[in-house]
Amino acid sequence: MNAAHAHNLDADALASLTTRRYLTGMVFQGVWWAGYILFPFVLAKSLNASGALVTLAVTMDTAGMMLALYWGHLMARSGRRRWLLRGGLGGRLILLLTPLATTPVAYVALLGVVHFFGSIVYPAVNGILQANLPADRRGRVFGKGALIQNLSTAVTSLVVGALLDRDPTLYRLIFPVMGCAGFVYLLILSRLPRPAGDETVDPPPGFTEIFRLSRPRADLRLAGVINALVTPFRDAVQTYREDRAYLWYEVNFMLYGMAFMMLNPVVPLYFTERLDLGYDEITNARVLIASVGVAVLGPLMGRMMDRFHPVRLCILAFAVLAGYPVALALAESMPALAPVTMAYLAFGVYALGMSGVNVAWHVGSITFAPSGQGGYYQGIHVTMVGVRGVIGPLAGYAVLRMLGFREVFATAGIFFLLASVSSVLLWRWMAQHKAREV
Question: Which of 28, 138, 282, 283 shows a CA-CA span of 20 to 30 A to 437?
Answer without folding.
Answer: 138
